[in-house]
Amino acid sequence: MILTVENLKKSFDGFVAVNGVSFSIEKGELCSIIGPNGAGKTTVFNLITGYLPLDEGRVIFNGVDITHMRAYQICRLGMRRSFQRTNIFPRLTVFENVQAALLAYRGKSFNFFTPVETLFREETEAILGRVGLQDHSNAMSGSLSYGFQKQLELGIALASEPDVLLLDEPTAGMSTEETSATIELIGRIAHEKGLTLLFTEHDMEVVFSISERILVLHQGQMITEGSPDEVRTNPDVQKVYLGEAR
Fold it and tell me: In the predicted model, is pLDDT for residue 183 greater than 90?
């Protein structure tokens, strides 16, 4: 298993947000976490990636106990995540955003003897091509459509060559066309790069179209997990989540 989560617990001022969540993910697997608003999905992400400290539990990544590591340390080990709101540099071009991520990951810095535009140029262009932004290389990132900004964020994440990628609501706020294009892109890149993917998503059509396994949270607890068909037909899931969307 590339990622093992054991008995995660987290409370905020007496409110139990996550209560005993456990699961494991195999290398190369595409998994999603679903549940109603307030189920604890984003909190689980924050606990796994070191953005929040655990009250109890343990997280093992690639055989390493990362439970008490900081977010930047976990990132260096090969785990990256996105957020519900885009996390880009809006005043840099698309090219510069990805180039900066490559520089940060590979420990390089600018100097007076190396022209900035030559640093990791081929690698940057390759990533932009992979995420479909090669035609927007010189555009200011803040001027991109929301869908393209999310694609850029994916490119920035790929620059660190992650083993595991966590995506928090990757299609939130997108149009139907943007959603379809983004999911196709995520699925293709995951398979091409052999990425292990864990994502949260509110759009059930997206969830069932890309997930190999689905984990279901309700009120901070895992109520079931299984294949899309198993989850779709589970009466508890229909009652607490899928039924709410009808």
Answer: no
pLDDT tens for each residue of 72-107: 999 889 999 887 667 788 999 999 999 988 988 876
Question: What's the chain look like in SS3?
Answer: CCEEEEEEEEEECCEEEEEEEEEEECCCCEEEEECCCCCCHHHHHHHHCCCCCCCEEEEEECCEECCCCCHHHHHHHCEEECCCCCCCCCCCEHHHHHHHHHHHHHCCCCECCECHHHCCHHHHHHHHHHCCCHHHCCCEHHHCCHHHHHHHHHHHHHCCCCCEEEEECCCCCCCHHHHHHHHHHHHHHHHHHCCEEEEECCCHHHHHHHCCEEEEEECCEEEEEECHHHHHCCHHHHHHCHHHHC
The per-residue pLDDT for range 7-41, each reduced to its tens digit, is: 999 999 999 999 999 999 999 999 999 988 889 99
CA 5 to chain centroid: 16
Instruction: Note the pTM of the prediction, 2 decimals.
Output: 0.84
